[in-house]
Specification:
This protein has 184 residues and is of the alpha+beta class. The chain has one domain. The chain is 54% helix and 13% strand. The strands form 3 sheets. The protein has a 3-stranded mixed beta sheet with strand order 1-5-4. The protein has a two-stranded antiparallel sheet with strand order 2-7. Helix 2 crosses helix 5. The longest helix has 23 residues. The radius of gyration is 15 Å and the shape is globular. The protein starts with a helix and ends in a 9-residue tail after the last helix. The structure holds calcium ion (2 copies). The site of one calcium ion has 6 residues, from strand 7. The site of one calcium ion (CA) has 6 residues, from strand 7.
């Protein structure tokens, strides 16, 4: 199947269900009366937070409860996470203490993702997926946690095991679907 066909199928099947899954568990604070209980904005993000967040994200993204993420589930999660961050004005993080915390995104970002941005995010996600999923072509939870952990390390510019200040801001910008550079 061509990339284009895969992406077309992804739009039709995964997106509405995934948006519901994410909205039920986390975001869409700007919409509706039943707002989830967000804790305060976080000032530091630790490796333990990333692990907890990755585990929560994995179950939200595994729409068919197969215990693994397909390429379309993975790519849809990337796009929906970015869309919700734009809509809310913050990235939502499931912290290691079980609380749902926020990281503000750049206020200059548009509240919606342009179609071209979505296409770019899907293309990047599919590339990452095939790199992370290994020989069996399915992404297991430990592979997903490792993938998230590697991204976290990429944003930890001073290598102290914690994201703070501009590291955190760059991370949130990335979650919101903007291309970011982390190398000097
Ligand atoms: Ca699945
Ligand atoms: Ca750091």
């Amino acid at each position: 199947m061509s990339e284009r066909r895969k992406i077309g199928r992804l739009e039709r099947i995964a997106m509405p269900a995934l948006i519901s899954a994410f909205a039920a568990g986390a975001a869409l604070a700007a919409v509706g009366e039943n707002q989830p209980a967000y804790g305060a904005a976080i000032s530091t993000l630790t490796g333990a937070d990333v692990k907890a967040h990755a585990a929560a994200l994995f179950s939200q993204a595994d729409l068919d409860n197969s215990g693994t993420l397909s390429a379309s589930e993975f790519a849809a999660a990337s796009v929906v996470t970015a869309e919700l961050a734009r809509l809310n004005g913050f990235a939502a993080v499931n912290a290691s203490d079980g609380s749902l915390r926020t990281i503000a995104i750049d206020h200059q970002l548009d509240a919606t993702l342009a179609a071209s941005e979505k296409e770019r995010l899907k293309a990047v996600a599919l590339r990452d997926y095939y790199a992370a999923s290994g020989a069996d072509g399915e992404l297991q939870q430990d592979e997903f946690v490792s993938y998230q952990r590697a991204k976290f390390e990429r944003f930890d510019l001073n290598g102290d095991g914690v994201l703070r200040r501009h590291e955190l801001k760059t991370f949130a910008t990335f979650v919101a679907g903007m291309p970011v550079t982390t190398s000097a």
